[in-house]
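Convert to structure. Protein one:
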Amino acid sequence: MAVYAIGDVQGCHDALQALLEKIRFDPACDRLWFVGDLVNRGPQSAAVLRFVMGLEAAVCVLGNHDLHLLAVAAGQARTRREDTLDDVLSAPDRDALLHWLRTRPLLHHDAALGYTLVHAGLLPSWDLGLARALAAEAEAALRGPAVDRLFAQMYGDQPDRWDPALAGWPRLRVIVNAFTRLRYCSADGRMDLAPKGVPGSQPPGLLPWFQVPGRKSRALRILFGHWSTLGLWNGDGAIGLDSGCLWGGRLSALRLDAEPEFFSVPCLQQQIPG
C-alpha cells in the first residue's frame, strides 16, 4: 500500500488524473490525502468531488475554497467573479456532494505515518492537542444545525489572533481562518491574511507561520497547501504542496509511507494571478 498527499486541485480534474497515472495509483490498495481546496477556479469541480468522494480510503481536509462553496450553496455568501462553482451548484447530485464536503475535517493526524494534514497552517501557540480540539470544535459547528449562521459569520479577518477566552462566532472565525487561510503571522501569533507572496516579500514584523520561533507544533511534520506562490516547500517541520496547478504551474504529490518523494505533472493555466 502506498500513501500520497496531493496539493490543491481546485477543480482541475484532468491534472489530477494525469498525476494519479504518473504515480500508478491503485485505488484497490493505495491511499490519497488531499490538502483541501478540491474545488473552485478550475473547470471541473463537480468531477473532482465525485472522484474523491468515491475513493474508499481518501482523506481530505477542508480548504477556504471548499468552505466558500458551502457558504454560497447555503445562501450565506455571493459568488465572486473568479468563481467556477456552477457545475456543483447545478449538479443533480448537488446535495450529496455538499453533504460529503461539509463533513470533511479541518485537521488529520496519523501517528503511525508521522504526518499532520491541514489546509493552511497552525498558529504558533497551538500544539497538536489544542489544534485537534479546536478543529473538532469547528467541525461540530459545520455539521450542526446552526451551520448557516456559521457561514454567515465566517468571513472577516478579526479577531486576528488566538485567545482562549474567545467565545461564539469570533472564536470559530479565528479557528477557521487559521486552518484555512493562514500564511503569515507575527511572532506573537497575530495573523495578517492579506500577504500572499513568497517569503521575503511580506511586510515587516511578519513571518511564515512555520518559521515563527518557538512554534509549539515544531515537532510535527505538517502537510499543507494554500500557498501557490510558495510552491513546493520542505523545511521547518512543514511541507507545502501547492505548486500552482491552477495558475499554469504543476499539481504535486508526496509519497508518505516510504522515503519522501515528490511527483508533479504540468497543468494548463485556468486563471491569471491577480
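Protein two, convert as well:
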Amino acid sequence: MSELDVRDAATPPEPAATPVPDPGLEEHVERYTDVDDRASRATYRQIVAMLGAVPVLVVAFVVVYFAVPISAEFALFGTTWKAQHVLLGGTVGLAILLIGMALIQWARLVMSDVEMSEERHPAQTGPEARAVLAADTKAGVEESGIKRRALIGSGVAGGLGLLVVPALLALGDLGPWPTDAVRAKTIEKTIWAEGIRLVNDVNYLPLKASELVVGQLVNAEPENLQALHGSEYQIAKAKAAIIVVRMDPNSIRIPDSRKDWQVDGILCYSKICTHVGCPISLWEQQSHHLLCPCHQSTFDLGNSGVVVFGPAARSLPQLPITTDADGYLVARSDFTVPVGPSFFERDSSKDFKDGDN
C-alpha cells in the first residue's frame, strides 16, 4: 500500500452539510370534509347550530336570573344545590363551551388544509415582508371560508357579543351603586351612638375613666356589639373597633373644637388605619405615636391623630367621648368622618388636619 493510500485511509470523511436530510413535506392526505360534499355541509350545519344555541342560552341565563328565586334548592347525589347558581353556571358555561367547540371544528374541518414550509427568516421585518404578511393575511381570510360561510363569522361575533349580557348582570349584582346616600348608610356609618359605653374587646367589661392610667392603651368596642350575630356582627366590629389611650393633658394638643371630645386626657380613636385598613395598636407612650404594622403609617394621638409618617393620607378618626353618671366612658356620637381606608368618592374636607381648630 502506498503512502498516499495510507494517508487517505486515516483521514475521516468530511461531515455532511446537514446531519439529517431534509425530509420535505409528507404526502398530503385530503380531509373527508374536502372530498365529501355531504360531510362538508353537515359540518357547516353543526358549527352553525352550536353558535346558534349561544343566544338561546344567554336568554335562558337572563330568564333564570330574574325568574328563579335565589332561595330555591334541589337535592342531588345526597347534596343540596342552589337552583339559581346551578342554572346560571350551566347556561353561561355551556354557551362558552359551544363557542369553543365551534371554533375548533371550524379550524379543523372548514379552514384551508394545506401544508406549507419555508426557510427561516431574520427576526427583523422589512417593508417587503410586511407586504407579504398583509397578502398572506388576506389569503388566509379567503382560505378560512369566512366569506363563503358568512353565518360562521356572524355566529362567532354574535355569540361572543351576547356573552357580555351575563357578565353585566353578574357584575351589576355585586352590590348597590355607591351613591352618597348608600355610603352614608353603610360604609360611612358605625353602630356608635350617643350614650353607648366603651367596653374592653376581650371581656366586654365597661371602661371606667378613673381606672385608666397615663400611658395606657386599651383595645375596645361598643357595648351594643354583643347584640349582633353572624355577618352583621363581623361587619359592625370591623368598622367600630377603637383604641382608648390616656395621656397627660399638659403634654398633648387638644384643639378648641375637640375640648369636649376627651375626658382628662383620655382620647378614643378608630383602630383601623386610614391607608388600607389594617388594625393598629403599636403604641409609643413617650412620643404619643401610634404605628401601623403593615406599612408603617404613624399617627400622633397627642395631636388629634394627624399623620406624621407613612402612606396614610388622612388623620385617624377620633370618637367623641364623655362619661356617664357612673363614671364609665361613653360615646357622645358616632364618628364625625368615615373610618377605615380612603376611597375616591368620599369627601375629605371634614378630615382633621394639623392646625385645625
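The two ends are 115 Å apart (CA to CA). The chain has nine helices and twelve strands.
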